[in-house]
Amino acid sequence: MIPAAPTADNRPPSVDRALGWPAMQALVASHGRALVLDCLREALDDWRAGQLADAPALLLAVQQRIERRLAPSLTPVFNMTGTVLHTNLGRAPLPPEAIAAIAAVAAGASNLEYDLQDAARGDRDSHVEAWICRLTGAEAATVVNNNAAAVLLVLNALAARREVLVSRGELIEIGGSFRLPDIMARAGCKLREVGTTNRTHPRDYAEAIGPRTALLLKAHTSNYQVQGFTSSLDEAQLVEIARAHHLPVVVDLGSGSLIDMQALGLPAEPVVREVLAAGVDVVTFSGDKLLGGPQAGIIAGSAELIGKIRRSPLKRALRCDKLTLAALEAVLRLYADPQTLVQRVPTLRLLTRRQEQIRQGAEALLPALQAWAGEDFVVDLCEVHSQIGSGSLPLETLPSAALRLRSRNGNRRSRSRELRQLAERLRGLPYPVIGRIAEDSLLLDCRCVEDTRLLAEQWQVPQ
Ligand SMILES: *Cc1c(COP(=O)(O)O)cnc(C)c1O
């Protein structure tokens, strides 16, 4: 089939000659000429660089390059980091109802912007707006790509070329790329800081209000807490000042929640309905944080202001696609039944799992993990604290259970290297496993692993 011996002077074959080999032709038949040609050229470069020296090696290199090229880049992983809403790992897992809704509209045409009753042009927000209003008490609502987009759109639509008042204690940065002062500048607004980092009083706002003021903005300081000698205004106080000057109040809730998290035994988080009931005109919050839906930014509030926001040309650029809206509608529908909600929305279910239940899952996984990790490592169970993540207070943690891997090596430096290599092996599995290294151990928090079977199976594969 292929010439077994290297060419006499060990020079690579020409592209045409190699492409003519029957084995290469077989690859062309299954993958197409363009891809094989591309990979062949790269493999021939490897030959010239001295990394290959014969035809079988060339063929293997081409095959491997094709495989790598065709392997999906975006792929499911096991989130064993202990952070439930992990932005880098895709945040909220979707319920089956949302996945079915995505599949139902993905394959063909849908009434995305089509009013079936009147055979007229419809509005894509219509599929979710009534649900958001019912669940939050808002008069109107609209949805965009994510919460950062929601804040950008609201500021641009309501305050371009004017001033926005924000407390110095709320100039937040979330996840490295969302910085309120930057968003403000991009929205074309002038940031006017009021008060100080730790204390802001009603008179600070009142004194800063002038003819160029467009609105008062409050940002939920979701990923940090100012402690000690502090003072800030709650929504009602802010509303009182704004009303006196006929200005709107906008609150960026970040996570926000449609239900009372404390009733589920979780740390308190502002409830959207309560914030709006305090008189706030517009709120923004994420679809894929505590709500447990797809990535989206929800804007809810007064009909007049939402109308203005919806008419902004920026809305068109920031709007959601049909897949997101299908998933969001399906998740919002689950909120109709508070009795089954927590069990049916995976984010809420994972956040409320009992430590004992998580520990049982961890225990069931231990033998497979020990066998897979090998004799060089000790595997045991330990108590850990999971985090909600995505801007919920990092100080508030949930008791959980983890599989702990420690190296038996006597040398500290070697132990640390071995742990890093083990973490790399876990990331290299068909379903990559992402844990976290803490001091002298690699921790795999089992809170987010409800189905242990698939995980155990890939640990049983002989390595
Ligand atoms: C998370 C967060 C954002 C950004 O939301 P995305 O959905 O990630 O765009 C903005 N503001 C606050 C307060 C947040 O917590």
Automatic annotation (TrEMBL):
It is found in: Cytoplasm. Gene3D superfamilies: 3.90.1150.180, Type I PLP-dependent aspartate aminotransferase-like (Major domain). One of its GO terms (biological process) is selenocysteine incorporation. Pfam families: Se-cys_synth_N, SelA. The keyword Transferase applies. Its main location: cytoplasm. Belongs to the SelA family. Converts seryl-tRNA(Sec) to selenocysteinyl-tRNA(Sec) required for selenoprotein biosynthesis. This is L-seryl-tRNA(Sec) selenium transferase. It comes from Halopseudomonas yangmingensis.
